[in-house]
Amino acid sequence: MxxxxxxxxxxxxxxxxxxxxxxxxxxPVLVDFWAHWCAPCKLLMPLLEKIVxxxxxxxxxxxxxxxxxxxxxxxxxxxxxxxVVLFKDGKPVDGFxxxxxxxxxxxxxxxxxxxxxxxxEDPIFxxxxxxxxxxxxxxxxxxxxxLSGDDQQPAALLLYARCLTERGALADAETVLNSVxxxxxxxxVAAVRAQLTFLRQAAELPDMAELKTRLAKNxxxxxxxxxxxxxxxxxQHYEPALESLLQLFIRNRSFADGAAHTTLLQVFExxxxxxxxxxxxxxxxxxxxx
Length: 290
Description:
The chain has 290 residues and is α/β, with parallel strands linked by helices. It has helices spanning 13-22, 39-54, 70-76, 102-110, 117-120, 123-132, 136-149, 154-166, 170-178, 186-203, 208-217, 222-234, 238-251, 259-271, 276-289, and strands at 7-9, 29-34, 60-65, 83-88, 91-97.
């Protein structure tokens, strides 16, 4: 049981009806379906609690232990963990499955819940939200305006470079990255450079449809596995790419001079040490190594 007044456990269908369904008519309720054996669940839960806490009561978090609350799980049709569902006005309106970053979760919530005041007033956060929602042109426009007044804002420059990357202006993105000299941003710059690398590599590879056809014929076509993973990374489909790269490393770690291992490390750098996928796959890679 948590000490946070905005976060609570749900025990039984009656409580779910009262604390989630009825409560959501007054304030949105985020429902986290989890289990003790689920490693990604344990990574996601404290992140959800942190985010909900920032809403200071305007968003609630209900936690449902799926091993115990089978009736609720069946009622909602939950099939994989973790699953997160947002309730508003007495009904589920949106949700997601799997581990997500803080910015991804906040972008998801921004479509349904008013942002905390201190965040809503931050133009860089607004641009980040636009970016996370796939509204790259709008994010780029906002950042251009912001940087026209002060072009020495590292966080804005980095996000601007990512916007340029999304529309294929890779040389321009490289130029912007070169202008970021703040030592505190070294990791973030390296992460964007990793994304540029994946995009450049993907442009020289067969398309995803061709690679999937090859793998349908031969699931152990190591070259196709590696190339499909790079195509997925270029499109920011990180979880399937990480899983394929890890399995390739386990099966044939010397393939292409250890490309699976090298690429995994590049993705870890791209996503950052706090990303739930990095925590999960770094541990699994360590287990495979030792």
